[in-house]
Amino acid sequence: MASHDPNASRPASEPVDYRFTLANERTFLAWIRTSLGLLAGAVAVHSLIEPIGGGPMLRLAVLVCVALALTLSLGAYRRWRMVERAMRAGRELPGPGSVPVLAAGTAVIAALSAAAVVLW
Q1: What gap in Å lies between CA 120 and CA 113, rounded to an integer?
Q2: Fewer CB near the last or first residue (10 Å), C or N of the chain?
């Protein structure tokens, strides 16, 4: 039995191994879950700070969470589509474009939250 090299160039006429298609779908769903988690966090922080006036830092953290959730959800779809096309064409997969965005966005949210706690 010959071993299957997933990195080997595949003719475009061959069907894509379903395992890779399903893995791509799971990755998409993981990004969507992360986006939903950010959105839920934004709603939770907003509902907690609204009655007590949590200050501009926490309000900005909420806005960053919402913006990051939107960016990640749109980026998840874009990446899923790019990976599907690359697999079907037998091309190299694209790099992980959303990873630095998520890391930077999370760092901003953490910094804003820490500043709000210190100043509050």
Answers
A1: 10
A2: N
77-113 as b/e, with b when 16 or more CB fall inside 10 Å?
Answer: eebbebbbeebeeeeeeeeeebeeebeebeebbeebb
DSSP symbol at 83: H
Comparing CA positions, the residue from 42, 112, 110, 114 lying closest to residue 71 is 42
Closest among 77, 68, 52 to 110, alpha carbons compared = 68
Question: pLDDT tens, position by position, for the chain (120 residues)?
Answer: 444 445 455 555 677 888 999 999 999 999 999 999 999 999 998 888 777 776 788 888 899 999 999 999 999 999 999 999 999 998 998 888 888 989 999 999 899 888 887 877
